Amino acid sequence: MTTTRDRTAANRATPRTGEAREQVLVDAAWLAAHLDDPHVRVVEVDVSATAYAEWHVDGAVLWNVYADLKDADYRLVDGDALESLLARSGIEPDSTVIFYGYAAAMGVWLLRLLGHADARVLDCSRDTWRAEGHPWSTAAADPAHSAYRLGPVDGRVRADHAAVRDAIGRPDVRLLDVRSPEEFRGERFWPSGAVQPDGRAGHVPSAVRQTIDGIQDERGAFRPAHELRTLFAAADLDGDSELITYCAVGGRAATAWFVLTELLGRDHVRVYDGSWAEWGRMPGTAVAAP
């Protein structure tokens, strides 16, 4: 019988390509059958606690992007805070961690950054999970705390504002802005249209807008690789240039990274996790807008 530990070891040894979707995506039936597996942890990632409080996958913990993952300047929280988050989520170094929710891919990206091998996305939406009769709960999960200790981070998946600044206008780096047209054009700072008094709207000079609309079907499952390749035509999929994705706070940027890296096998992709919330509020950064 194949155990979760065996799968984790296999994942460490197997390159992640567009054909290896089963290594990074799990269907609802698989997760429903493994909710009681002590080596499996489930995490909902969202920008508020509202949806989680209404209901969530049975046994799932919540990672609130603003409360758990970002500091007051919208940068990723420090190592001590991340260790604490993983520990109180009951995650061990050999755990299989399944993410779902608005920013599920951000959870996978974060664990890749931290060197955790087995992180995956539930390949359906929250609504599909419940509509198909899988277990859900309104009670907040409280797993036994682990003793997670972080190792070196993987800088190959993360870009900071200095890397973005240095990428402007370079032919060997493509900046991918995955926000809405209104954000890209400088008509709004936040995707909701909320005002940011100390922020400037627009986009990073030389950035190319890359939509992530339509990457999932009506069930919330990721579309086949050939369809995703068409949607990501602006991303130079067959080139060897570096790609840096950004959005407002990193959630959509991580989704683009997940598709490019984990589903399409594109190398040299990094997420600027500070994204526009950092760039647009920093004095002296270059901002382009019509």
What does this structure look like?
The chain is of the alpha/beta class and 290 residues long. It is globular, with a radius of gyration of 18 Å. The strands form 3 sheets. It has a 5-stranded parallel beta sheet. Strands 8-12-11-9-10 form a 5-stranded parallel beta sheet. A two-stranded antiparallel sheet has the order 3-7. Strand 9, helix 9 (181-184) and strand 10 form a beta-alpha-beta unit. The protein starts with a helix and ends in an 11-residue tail after the last helix. The chain has helices spanning 4-13, 28-33, 50-54, 65-69, 79-88, 104-113, 126-131, 161-167, 181-184, 225-231, 251-263, 275-279, and strands spanning 25-26, 40-46, 56-57, 61-64, 96-100, 119-122, 136-137, 158-159, 173-177, 208-209, 242-246, 269-272.
Search tags:
290 residues, 30% helix, globular, five-stranded parallel sheet, disordered N terminus
What composes the largest sheet? 5 strands, parallel
Count of extended strands: 12
Order of helices and strands: HEHEHEEHHEHEHEEHEHEHEHEH
Helicity, in percent?
Answer: 25-40%
Rg, Å, rounded: 18 Å
**Structural class, judged by helices and strands?**
alpha/beta
Mean pLDDT: 92
Strand order of the largest sheet: 1-6-5-2-4
Q: In one word, what is the shape? A: globular
Cα end-to-end separation = 59 Å
Give the number of helices.
Answer: 12
Strand content: 15-25%
Low-confidence runs (pLDDT<50, min 5 residues)?
Answer: 1-19
